[in-house]
Amino acid sequence: MDTLKGLFWKPDPAEQLRKCNSLIRTNSRALDRQILTLKNLETKTKSQIKAASTRRQHTSSTPLEIRLLARELVRIRRQHTRLNTSKAQLESVGMQVREAFAVRKIQGSMKVSTQVMKDVNALVKLPELTGTMRELSSVLVAANVMEEMAEDAMGAAETEFEDEEAEEEVDKVIAELVGDRFGEGVAVPDDLPAVSVQEPVADEQVDLQEMRSRLEQLRS
Question: Coiled-coil intervals in this record (predicted)?
Answer without folding.
Answer: 147-176
